[in-house]
Design a protein that fits this description.
By secondary structure, the chain is mostly helical. The chain contains 10 helices and no strands. The mean pLDDT is about 90.
C-alpha cells in the first residue's frame, strides 16, 4: 500500500456528510455513557467508523470536532482531549488499512494498541490539568488507591487512564467492527474507491 493512499482524504460530498455523522455518533454515545456513569467513555465510536470508511484523516477530524463541540456544550473538560481524539482517529485509520480489523482476534490487538496510544497522549493532559485524574469515578478510584500507596502521580495517572482506555477501546473497537461489517458493500466500496482515486 502506498503511503499517500494510507493518508489520503478526498473531501467528497460523501466524506463531508460522514464527518458530521461521526461527530453526532460520538456526541450521543459519550453523553449516554456519562449520563449512566459507565466505566467507559464510548465517545470514539464515530471516530472509529469514519477512520475505517474514509481513512485516518477523516477520523482525526471527526474526533477533534466532537471534542470541541462536546466541550462547548456539555463538558469543558472534553475540549482538552481533542488531541487524544486526533491520535485515536489516526491510529484506527492506519491500523484498519494495515488489516488489523480483518478478524475478531486482530480487533482485540488493535484495541490494545489504540488504548496505549490514547493513554500516552492523555496522561500528560490529566497530570497538567487535573492533577492526574481522569474525571471518571471508576478510574479515579484506582488513581486514589495508587497515590495512597505512594505511587508517583504520573504513573498512577497512566494506570488510571490505561485501565479505562483498555475497557473503552475494546468495547468501541468491537462495536465499530460489528457495525462496519453490517454496512452495505456498496457503501464500503464507495469510500474505498474515493480514497484510492
Amino acid at each position: 500500500m502506498k503511503v499517500q493512499r494510507l493518508w489520503s482524504i478526498k473531501l467528497s460530498s460523501a466524506t463531508l456528510v460522514l464527518i458530521p455523522a461521526a461527530v453526532g455518533i460520538n456526541y450521543l454515545a459519550k453523553a449516554l455513557a456519562e449520563g449512566l456513569k459507565l466505566p467507559v467513555w464510548l465517545g470514539s465510536i464515530g471516530t472509529f467508523l469514519a477512520s475505517m470508511l474514509a481513512g485516518p484523516i477523516a477520523g482525526a477530524i471527526s474526533g477533534f470536532i466532537n471534542n470541541v463541540i462536546y466541550g462547548l456544550t456539555l463538558s469543558p473538560i472534553s475540549t482538552v482531549y481533542a488531541l487524544t481524539s486526533i491520535g485515536i482517529g489516526l491510529s484506527v485509520g492506519v491500523l484498519f488499512r494495515l488489516g488489523w480489523f480483518s478478524s475478531v482476534k486482530k480487533v482485540l490487538l488493535a484495541a490494545l494498541v489504540i488504548a496505549f496510544i490514547s493513554a500516552i497522549i492523555s496522561t500528560p493532559l490529566n497530570v497538567y490539568f487535573w492533577a492526574g485524574q481522569t474525571g471518571n469515578a471508576w478510574g479515579d478510584a484506582i488513581f486514589a488507591a495508587l497515590v495512597a500507596h505512594h505511587t508517583p502521580v504520573f504513573l498512577a495517572s497512566f494506570v488510571d487512564e490505561f485501565v479505562l482506555d483498555i475497557i473503552d477501546k475494546i468495547v468501541v473497537a468491537y462495536l465499530a467492527y460489528v457495525i462496519y461489517r453490517r454496512l452495505p458493500n456498496k457503501l464500503i466500496n464507495f469510500f474505498q474507491d474515493e480514497s484510492h482515486a
